[in-house]
Each structure stands twice: as structure tokens, then as C-alpha cells.
Please model this.
Amino acid sequence: MSPVAAFSFNKLVILGVGLIGGSLARALRERAGLAGRIVGVGRSAQSVARALELGVIDEAVALDDTPALTRALEGADLVLLAAPVAQTGPLLARVAPLLDPHAIVTDAGSTKSDVVAAARQALGARIAQFVPGHPIAGRESSGVDAALPELYVGRNVVLTPLAENAPADVERIASMWRATGACVREMSEAQHDRVFASVSHLPHVLSFALVDQILATPDAELKFSFAAGGFRDFTRIAASSPEMWRDICLANRAALLAELDDYTAVLARFRAAIEASDGAALEEAFARSRVARREWQERGGVRPAGESAEK
Amino acid sequence: MSPVAAFSFNKLVILGVGLIGGSLARALRERAGLAGRIVGVGRSAQSVARALELGVIDEAVALDDTPALTRALEGADLVLLAAPVAQTGPLLARVAPLLDPHAIVTDAGSTKSDVVAAARQALGARIAQFVPGHPIAGRESSGVDAALPELYVGRNVVLTPLAENAPADVERIASMWRATGACVREMSEAQHDRVFASVSHLPHVLSFALVDQILATPDAELKFSFAAGGFRDFTRIAASSPEMWRDICLANRAALLAELDDYTAVLARFRAAIEASDGAALEEAFARSRVARREWQERGGVRPAGESAEK
Model:
């Protein structure tokens, strides 16, 4: 990537002004001190009214108000999709005919292969204008009231550029995220989906499954009453949003199934060692895991506060 | 159980004065203000020297010093085994011929069916003198230097009395633990092992397995570099002691295999729902888990500090 360039923008349109979109707006304005106009688009004017009231955006537009949306996108050089991943296709189809030919569109979706497929279908020949992205940040709370100008400081943002993207456009989206304090990294969409299936989506499924298993047993109450610190940490992510995780599981289905099958094979090896009372094999595997987990922690792990709801 | 009785003791012999045994000694002396004599027995006099130096015990005895061990057990009314579970049989066989007929022996092992089987073999006709127990407490650090008089305050201690135990003996061990501030609960050894296989041993195996799976892939470094808060909490227990968890897996083998198979079946159901893109089934299961996890947390969960190394 080229050296950090000064970043500025004329008009940024954010589709979906919640935690992610709202934090980007606040970061660019309050942290980077940028003066460009920021327009928020919501399902209804109502749904972005709070963002306007908080001063996070300069103008609130309803998605179905065609004249207002047309005006909003006129001269907009940046467009961010920050709505649930499943809405990527419909939203891009809605804005495609109104896009300025110089506008660059990016997104914040936590899966990428499905987003790119939806974008190709919705944008057709304009696909070069779409630079896929994924800021790795979140909080327990959601909505624009939870938006923070510092949300992205020190966080990773993954871009998965398309073959069709102009390098300058990719760099522009990268410099936008760097202006929020984030570290920008690039990889392919397949690699992105595999990495997050492994370190985020699979653990969520495994954690939900443990609570679900206990619930289905007749002595569930007794078990819960003796659950301690290990259970607490292991299942913290089982308190995550069921709708969001349903969508992520389906959006990243192929990569998640591959990781799940791979994990099941590891578990079968562990099971065989336990059944055979093969203490040496168990100790070796556990020791290997402990070393890796400790090294990860020592290399910095992750910030402990404010980012626990990563997707 | 009968109402709380005043507890006192004449002489307590602790076999293995580490975190668990040392904390009991400190709790009885410093918290409950009891004046009975406390003798610590170690593999060598050296290994209990530190406990003596810290004033946690009144006398240090080496296990292989038969005259000293004989004197230590003379008139001892309470004996606690607080060594690794695998040593239960040999330790009990060692002390059995020296036991005062009025002594009550208890243990602190994190599995119970195997401990009871070893105790029956080692104690033979004296099995009625053995009341099996498991204090649910621990810390990240181990050894007598980590021992605390408050370690057991508000913690559960499970007793799994034998048919042969006199109720008064069970009550005496219960009142000893209550004097440390613990809550004493009773269940069968099979139920104990099932409960802890489910809420503690299985999560540890699942957590070790995730780190082990990632390690075996060519892009392990990339994956670790994007691991965030969900991964951190899910895998915290994968930094636990490999030796200890090897021993627990083998000691609680039957119950753990049953839980593992049950879990694998739940995971297969989740997999089928993901493969079939059955969003409704996923959302329903995730929502059920979330409600249960949140209720558990609201009912009190566990104390967040100082007990994370439960076994």
C-alpha cells in the first residue's frame, strides 16, 4: 500500500446509521476534523432522526424518498453500506442508478464472498466502484447512541479488493479508515471468510451449542448452578444476538461448514485419545494449545474493553 | 442436613499443602479462629517447608518418614487429601494402616467416581471413614504462596457421601467447610461427575480443540492476528495446565465421553441447519441459548475474580 495520504471527502452517504456507520461519521468529523457533508439514509426518515438529533449526520433521508435520495447521492464521492449483510443486494440495487460515476462505494459487512456476489448482481457494469470492506469492531450495545469517535482506533479493517477496482479507489477507502485510527489490511474475500469462520463464527456456534446441549438435559438447573469461570467465559458469546448470528451463519455458510467439519475431526481425535486413556496424546495437544494461546495473549491479544460484540 | 453446628478440631493432617490445602488451613485458623493443630504432609519435608515458613501449618512431615507420619496421624481427627487426583489411591494406602479409628478422611479431588473407587480399594473395611468432597474453587496461580483465607467464601463445596458414611461424619466435614465460608451441597458421585463433565471439563476440551485446530492450518498466524474478543474469552481456558486437564479427562473419562457425544450430536443438528440454510432453526436455538445464558448471569453467574482456574 502507498504511504498514508491526506484524506478528505466532499460528501459521504451512509446507508444505515447505527453503531458502525455512526462511529465512522463521528470519527471522521470529531477525530479527524474533516468538514465534508455527511448524509444518513435509513429505512424511514424516523430511523435516522436520532442520528440527526445527535449531530452525527448533517441530513436524514428516507430510502424510499426517491427525489431526496437522488439529491443525496448527487456529488457524493463516498458511500458506505452499514446495514445488515442480507440487505446488501437490495440497497445496492436501489442506489446503483443514482450513483455518481466517481463515487466509491464500500461496506462494513462481516462476510465478504456473499457481499461481493450480491454487489456484482446489483451493480453489474459498475462493480469497479465497489470496494468491499470489514471493520473488525463492535460493542455490546448497538445503535447510533452507542457510536463512538474512537471505536476504530487500533482496530483492524480488512479490505478485499476486486480485480476490477482501480488501485487509487482502494487506497482512498484505506485512507478513510486510517483517518479513524484503524489499521487497514488486505486479503481475498475467500481468505477473509475462512479466517473469520475460524476465529469468530465457529466459536460462536460452539458456544451456543454448549448452552443448548445443557438446556436439553433434565438436570440443566443443577448444571447451571455449578457453572463457574470457565463456563462463564466460554459461553459469554452465547448471549449474542440470535438474528445477527443466524445471518452470519447463512452468509458465510460454505466457509463455516468447512471449519465446522475440520473442528469435528479434531474433536474426534481428542475423543479417541480420551477413550483410549492416551494421556500422552492429550497432554501433547493441550500443551501445544496452551503455548499458542499464551503467545497470542503476549503478542497483544485484543483490547479487553468495548469490542466484545465483534462480528 | 442438620442446622449449622459449632466446628472445632483437635488435629488436622493435610496431605499436599498447595493452594487448596493451604487455603483450608488459613481459613480455619485466620478466618474461623480455630486453635487445632495443623500438620502438613508432603512428598518430602522440603516440599512442605514453604508452608511451614509461611505459618500455614504447625509442622511439616515427609510422606516417606514412617515414624513422623505415624506420630502425625496419632490423634488426628481430620485428614484432608489435597494432592492430584491420580495420587488418591497411593496416598490413602499409605495412611490407611496409621489412621486413628475416629479420624474422618476427606478429599478435594475434582472428580469423584474414580476417587471413590480408589478409596474403596485402598481403605477396604475402613471406607466408612472416607467422606468424598470437592471444593469448587481455584485461582490462576497455584502453590501454597497463592493460598488465601477467603478462597472458599461463597464457593460451593460438593460432598458425595457414601452409603457407609455415618451421617454425623458427613455433617462434620460439612461444618468444616462451612467454617471457611463455603456453601456445602450433596449429590451422588455419578451426578457430580456428570455435572462437572458438562459445565467444566467439556468446555475445556472444546477450547483446547479450537486452538489446536487453528494451529494445524497453514494460515494459523493470519487467523490468530484477526482473533478478537470472542476468541479471547472462548479460549482463555485453553491456557490451563495440560497435565491437570489430561488427568481430569482420564479420571472423568466415562462422564466426559457421554457429554462429548451428546455435544457432538447437538453440533450435528446445528450443522444440518446451516447446510440447509434453515435460518428459523438456527435463530430458535441461538435465542434459547441466549435467554438461558442471560438468566444464568442475572441469577449471579460467578464471581469474576480469583476463581478462574476451577477444576
Notes: The mean pLDDT of chain B is 93.
